[in-house]
Design brief:
Blueprint (H helix, E strand, L loop, with lengths): L8 H8 L21 E6 L5 H4 L6 E6 L2 H8 L7 E6 H4 L7 E2 L4 H5 L6 H4 L12 E13 L2 H4 L18 E3 L3 H12 L12 H12 L1 E4 L5 H6 L4 E5 H10 L3 E4 L6 E10 L14 H6 L5 H7 L8 H8 L7 H4 L3 H5 L2 E2 L5 H16 L1
Parallel strand pairs: 1-2, 1-3, 6-7, 6-8, 10-11
Antiparallel strand pairs: 3-10, 4-10, 5-8, 5-9, 5-10
C-alpha cells in the first residue's frame, strides 16, 4: 500500500494540540456601551444558546463558524476585553502570554478538582488559572440498531474492531484521538504519549483506521442516521441530544474510560493603554451556568459543568437512567479517563511518525 499523504493543516493543528473537537449552536447576544463593551468570541455551537442569550449587556457576542476563523480574529488587535470560548484542542494555538489570569477564585473553587489542570491550561500546579472550564465530557460509542454489540460492551474499545463494523464505522478526524483510542484497545491504562517505535500500537492504529467508513464525527453522523453506518465514536455532548430524539440509537462509555474533552473560557489581554484591564469579568453570568435553571438547559444539550458529583446529582436524577452515565460517568470510570495534554515539539513529531507508519502499512 502506498504511503498516505501527510496530515492536512486541520489535522496538524489537532495533533499539535489536544485532539479535542468543537461542536454544535450559538447566537448573537445584545450589546450596549458600543466600543466599550467586552466581547465574547465563540465558535458556532460552542456555547449553549440559552446561556449565550443571558450574556450581560456590558458584553457583546461574536460567533465564528470554525475555530480557525476565531483564531484568525484574535490576531487582530482589540482595545476591548475579549473572552474566548474554545475546545481544549485549539487553545494551545493561543500564546499563553496573551492571556490574562482568570481572577475568579470563588467560582473556580466551586468546581470539582478534576477541573484544576485544565484551568491552568495543564501548566502545572503552581501556574495561575488562565481558563474557566465550564463543560467537560468523554468520547462514547454510539450504535444504531445494534443491540448485539451493546450486549458486548464489556469488550470496551476493542469492540470497534468487530468484523461487522468494517466500512460501517464513523471515527473522529483527529489522528491524536485515534492513537489514544488504539492505546486503550491495547491497555486499560495507557502509558502517556507513545513513541513511534511501538510496533503493536502502529498495527492497532492501522487496524482501527481500516475499519472506518468516514473520519469526521460531525458530517459522518449523517451516515449513521441514514443507516449507512452502524457505529460512531462521538463526544458525549454530541451523543446525548441524539439519544433523546432517536430511539434507534444507543450509546455507552467503555469501563476503561476515554480521553476527556473540555470547553474553556479564557481572557485575552486588551491592546489598549498600558495597564488597561478592560471590562470586568461577567462573574454572575459564569455562575448562572453552574446553577438552575440554566444548568438544566446545559445538560439537555449535553454540556456538563465540572461540578462535584454530589452537586450534579439532584439535576441528573431527573434524567433517564440510561443517559446519566454518559453525562457524568461513575467515579471509578471517570478515574480512568485522561486528559490529552499539550504536546511539545518532539512529542508532536513522534506522533506524526507513528501516524505515518500506520498509514503506510
Amino acid at each position: 500500500m502506498a504511503q498516505a499523504p501527510l496530515l492536512s493543516r486541520r489535522h496538524l493543528l489537532q495533533l499539535a494540540s489536544l485532539g479535542g473537537t468543537a461542536l454544535a449552536a450559538g447566537a448573537l447576544a445584545g450589546c450596549s456601551r458600543g466600543g466599550d463593551a467586552g466581547r465574547l468570541l465563540s465558535v458556532r455551537g460552542q456555547l449553549p444558546s440559552a446561556w449565550l442569550k443571558a450574556l450581560p449587556s456590558s458584553w457583546r457576542s461574536q460567533v465564528l463558524d470554525t475555530p480557525a476563523e476565531l483564531l484568525e480574529q484574535l490576531r487582530a488587535p482589540s482595545p476591548a476585553s475579549r473572552l474566548i470560548s474554545l475546545g481544549d484542542g485549539w487553545l494551545q494555538q493561543l500564546p499563553a502570554a496573551a492571556l490574562q489570569p482568570i481572577n475568579a477564585p470563588a467560582l473556580l473553587e466551586l468546581l470539582d478538582p478534576i477541573a484544576q489542570a485544565p484551568s491552568r491550561l495543564f501548566a502545572g500546579p503552581d501556574a495561575a488559572a488562565k481558563a474557566f472550564p465550564w463543560a467537560f465530557g468523554t468520547w462514547v460509542i454510539l450504535l444504531r440498531n445494534r443491540p448485539d454489540l451493546l450486549r458486548r460492551q464489556s469488550e470496551g474499545w476493542a469492540l470497534l474492531l468487530d468484523p461487522s463494523l468494517k466500512g460501517r464505522l464513523v471515527l473522529p478526524a483527529s489522528p491524536r484521538l485515534l492513537i489514544a483510542l488504539a492505546q486503550r484497545q491495547l491497555s486499560s491504562k495507557p502509558a502517556g504519549v507513545p513513541s513511534p517505535g511501538d510496533v503493536a500500537l502502529v498495527d492497532q492504529v492501522r487496524r482501527l483506521h481500516r475499519q472506518a467508513l468516514s473520519l469526521d464525527e460531525r458530517q459522518g453522523l449523517n451516515f449513521l442516521l441514514a443507516g449507512d453506518a452502524d457505529a460512531a465514536v462521538v463526544t458525549s455532548q454530541r451523543a446525548v441530544p441524539l439519544l433523546q430524539r432517536d430511539p434507534r440509537l444507543t450509546a455507552f462509555l467503555p469501563a476503561t474510560g476515554s480521553p476527556l474533552w473540555w470547553q474553556l473560557l479564557v481572557r485575552q489581554n486588551p491592546t489598549g493603554p498600558a495597564g488597561s484591564t478592560g471590562s470586568p469579568l461577567p462573574l454572575e453570568w459564569l455562575r448562572d451556568g453552574l446553577n438552575l435553571p440554566l444548568l438544566d438547559r446545559l445538560l439537555a444539550a449535553g454540556w456538563v459543568p465540572p461540578l462535584p458529583a454530589a452537586q450534579l446529582a439532584p439535576a441528573l436524577k431527573r434524567w433517564p437512567a440510561r443517559l446519566r452515565p454518559l453525562l457524568l460517568p461513575p467515579p471509578d470510570v471517570l478515574e480512568r479517563c485522561t486528559n490529552l495534554e499539550p504536546l511539545n515539539a518532539a512529542q508532536r513529531q513522534g506522533l506524526q511518525q507513528l501516524w505515518d507508519q500506520a498509514m503506510a502499512g
